[in-house]
């Protein structure tokens, strides 16, 4: 995806993959079909890492930290796949955009659980999780566009603070990030 | 001038003024400018109907009620027309936000007024909202770059909220705080537009005000201002 989704041709894909054009069409019906399969693969794999990391952590705060950490690590380990899912997906047509939105939504329940640990959980805005996740993805998107995917893990304390503060307040969030 | 008033569509977005019918004797600059605005409005209508990918030059000229030749006097093609439309939307949005923000003395009131102006503009101009916030991303790398740059222009409004805060607040804010706040806001608005809820955007005001003010003034004060 070094050239962006629109500019990439099936010829580019088979050349990079070192396979025959026929083999491409045995597996995919079109460039879009191939893109969506790539996206599905990466979303599934990154979410599996998030879930796995979160499952090993104890308590909501630690789960959020571990899940976000695992996600950033995936982005930095797999910059090309991350670019596909977080940057190119936005401009690769409706089906890709829909999958992108669904992948963002996967983080909403994880965050929403924080309401149970907040002393004002019932008063928090309904849209809070959507805006937090949208904000985190926007920051990651910017870093990828700027070619800084490899250094993305350094954002973890800032993003954890951003995600936790609305639920547990600034001071508790800061204690959680101080341990990072 | 090949415009025939009889062919004009019934409605233009109110933002984009309409050329009066008949022989008007208006200065050429005005006519030219007006044609350009009509083409931009025509593109916004066509894109709202068919999406960026499905929109043709014929769709744009039909909605704008100008000839194909006139289109090519103004633009090289669909992409260039889209860029002009996108720039128009972001410019208007910025003007509304700036005006609303400047009219308030207090920073937090200014942010609330700015967000309110943004939501009011987008909900009153559903075609332009869709074009500027949703379709822009599929319109190629040139527009995506402008989209990113346009989002960045809203950061300084929030950054001004750092002025005069106690050190313990400033220490907590990171380099990416404003980016995350504006990104979160745009992401939510975009989701609502995609879901066909553009006319309900203004109901997001309290949530967005609370979300954006909280890092600066604290959760409780942000909630108080948002619900005042």
Keywords:
heterodimer, A: 180 residues, mainly alpha, Tetracycline Repressor, domain 2, 9 helices, elongated, B: 228 residues
Describe the structure.
The complex is a heterodimer of chains A (180) and B (228). In chain A, 69% of the residues lie in helices and 0% in strands. Chain A is mainly alpha-helical and 180 residues long. Chain A has one domain: Tetracycline Repressor, domain 2 (Orthogonal Bundle). In chain A, helix 3 (31-56) packs across helix 5. The longest helix of chain A has 26 residues, at 31-56. In chain B, helix 1 (28-54) packs across helix 6, helix 4 (78-102) runs antiparallel to helix 5 (107-124) and helix 5 (107-124) packs antiparallel against helix 11 (205-217). Chain B has 228 residues and is mainly α. Chain B has helices at 28-54, 57-64, 68-74, 78-102, 107-124, 126-134, 141-152, 155-159, 167-172, 177-194, 205-217, 219-227. Chain B folds into 2 domains: 5-75, Homeodomain-like (Arc Repressor Mutant, subunit A); 79-227, Orthogonal Bundle (Tetracycline Repressor, domain 2), CATH 1.10.357.10. Classes of the chains: A mainly alpha (180), B mainly alpha (228).
Oligomer: heterodimer
Distance between the termini of chain B: 53 Å
Order of helices and strands of chain B: HHHHHHHHHHHH
- Termini distance of chain A? 32 Å
At CATH level 2, the architecture of chain A is: Orthogonal Bundle
The SS-based structural class of chain A is: mainly alpha
Shape of chain A: elongated
Report the CATH topology name of chain A.
Tetracycline Repressor, domain 2
For the record, the CATH class of the largest domain in chain B is Mainly Alpha
Largest sheet of chain B: none
> What general form of chain B does the structure show?
elongated
The total count of strands of chain A amounts to 0
The largest sheet of chain A, given as strand count, sense and whether it forms a barrel, is: none
